[in-house]
Design goal:
44% of the residues are buried. By secondary structure, this protein is mainly α. Helix 1 runs parallel beside helix 13 and helix 4 packs across helix 14. Strand 1 and strand 2 form a beta hairpin. A two-stranded antiparallel ribbon has the order 1-2. It has one domain.
Length: 366
């Protein structure tokens, strides 16, 4: 099966919207699932009301984040093969991820604490500015303002706890670039790192180092997606395999912590099949734009500001109350930040994916 052709999406950037038409919808659903999961923690101080937590032992956000990592591993691997140079790859990754991330960091450091406690004393504390600069450099452990917390709970100290996934993504982007440069970005290479990541999660987890914890948490899903990119380059995904692995995935999430670690491994094939052209059309949920990243980045601070007004309340009611403002934040992020940034990378050094720089049809580089 030939590699996916490079088309043009709504924003004018290179995309796989023809072959992978449901990807934006899957990302949107995953982002909303994260907001739902956070709603219980923010509104009640506990995750006990999360139905996924009750049924499987893990909150909905756990599965949603793994979906993000699987899709990211698939698309980032494709992106590296589609770029003409390491610089082009780095520039495209930067423009997709960093502008909205930087704006969210500035808002949660400079504006959100003021909105919640009405004071700006944190701006006079040099630790605030040191933490701000470190967080802008993708150090998720520094996303906190001295003497400020959203509420009386440990997670309340973090201005935006989703930042750990951005840190993990950046590290994985760098690893993909390094593997490509060493000619190790191959199916065997990605399988090796997938097995290594699962082994670390199961038998040698980094519990105390938050940086390595973030990487080990995201790597299984990311490399599951990368492996599937190599598989799908040559084989059209089959519905019956997707259905079989979906059953295995669903069974696994109910069995044990160990089988839940394997969730992205078994879910990658059915998930990516569902995102492809061969699956049923999930509908045009993204006609207003690709809101998923903005929802994910800005959901937590928006929910915290709302909670500071309403006080504690029931989780589902809080989710419904927050959904409109969070969707609006995602819409603003897409149209004011992400889409303009994506236009800067449109058409820059794109070639058919799966072909290395200097490679032409019928001939491999020497």
């Amino acid at each position: 099966m030939p590699p996916p052709a490079v088309g043009r999406g709504r924003s004018g950037v290179a995309s796989d919207t023809g072959r992978y038409r449901n990807f934006d919808t899957l990302r949107l659903w995953a982002a909303v699932a994260v907001v739902l999961s956070h709603s219980f923690l923010i509104a009640t101080g506990t995750e006990d009301g999360d139905l996924f937590k009750v049924l499987t032992g893990e909150v909905a956000g756990f599965y949603a984040v793994q979906v993000f990592f699987v899709l990211s591993g698939f698309l980032v691997t494709r992106s590296r093969f589609a770029c003409d140079s390491s610089w082009d790859y780095a520039r495209r990754r930067f423009l997709r991820v960093y502008p909205a991330y930087a704006v969210s960091v500035l808002l949660v450091f400079l504006l959100v604490p003021f909105l919640i406690d009405g004071a700006g004393a944190h701006l006079a504390d040099e630790r605030t500015w040191r933490n701000l600069l470190r967080t802008l450099a993708a150090d998720s452990t520094r996303a906190k303002v001295p003497e400020f917390t959203y509420y009386d709970a440990p997670v309340g100290e973090s201005l935006n706890p989703v930042y750990w996934t951005i840190e993990a993504e950046v590290l994985l982007y760098l690893l993909v670039g390094l593997l490509y440069a060493l000619r190790l970005l191959t199916l065997p290479g990605c399988l090796f790192f997938l097995v290594l990541a699962i082994w670390v999660r199961l038998f040698a987890p980094f519990a105390d180092d938050l940086h390595r914890w973030a990487l080990q948490y995201g790597a299984p899903g990311f490399f599951s997606g990368a492996v599937m990119w190599f598989v799908f380059r040559h084989h059209r995904p089959w519905a019956w395999i997707a259905a079989l692995l979906a059953v295995v995935t669903l069974a696994g999430i109910f069995l044990s912590d160990a089988t839940r670690v394997l969730f992205p491994v078994f879910a990658a094939y059915p998930l990516l099949w569902l995102g492809s052209r061969g699956a049923p059309d999930l509908g045009n949920w993204t006609r207003a734009g690709d809101l998923s990243y903005g929802i994910y980045l800005f959901g937590w601070p928006v929910q915290q500001v709302i909670r500071s007004i309403t006080g504690p309340m029931e989780g589902w009611s809080f989710f419904l109350l927050c959904l409109g403002p969070v969707l609006l934040a995602g819409w603003l992020s897409w149209h004011l930040i992400e889409r303009p940034a994506l236009r800067l990378k449109a058409g820059a050094g794109v070639r058919p994916p799966g072909r290395r720089a200097g490679e032409t049809a019928g001939r491999r580089p020497s």
